Amino acid sequence: MKDKGAHPGAERGLLTASGPSASPSWNILKKCLLVDGIAVVAMVLAAFILTDMHGVLSVLSGSLLVIAFFGLSLLVGHIVSRRMPSAVMGAFVLTYIVKVVGFAAVLLALGIPDWLNKPWFAGAAVVCVLVWQATEVVIFSKQRFLVFDESAVPAPGASAHDGDSGESEAKEPTDGQ
Q1: pLDDT, tens digit (0-9, with 9 covering 90-100), for 28-54
Q2: In 58, 68, 159, 171, which residue has its Cα 20 to 30 A from 27's Cα atom?
Q3: Rounded to an integer, what distance in angstroms lies between the CA atom of residue 129 and that of residue 25?
Q4: CA separation (Å) from 134 to 32, 78, 82?
Q5: Predicted model pTM
Q6: Is the separation of the CB atoms in 132 and 67 below 8 Å?
Q7: Phi and psi dihedrals of 110, rounded to 5?
Q8: CA 121: distance to chain centroid?
């Protein structure tokens, strides 16, 4: 395919499509950690200014709980996609079930510590969830995925009978048959 809309001074030639994003789960995880980390720092500063160390610890624990919960899925998705790409969705589902049961068990076993400031804990958790999910959606929408295997598509101009001698075997109908 020729690029007919290219600038006149641009080199003319065939356009090549870029491939899928390398390691999409890893890219999403890194960017979500960065953006959520910025939000956590802002909330810790706000808790430090407006409350005491209990507020800061509550913000950190609520934020780290959310980051661990969401980050674990993306980390498992990254590891599984490298070893067995067809099993990624199953790994996500299994990880989600393990996380829900595991985190619920840990939270129930720990109970509510005396130092926990419930509004700051809940507020930090909600903010982290919203920031993480928004970042994940934006970054995911920019990822490139291979929809079909381009190596299986014959090259332009190649015939369906690549192994044949190139001659058509169509027969002319004869009279009487």
Answers
A1: 999 999 999 999 999 999 999 999 999
A2: 58
A3: 17
A4: 9, 20, 25
A5: 0.67
A6: yes
A7: -75, -35
A8: 27
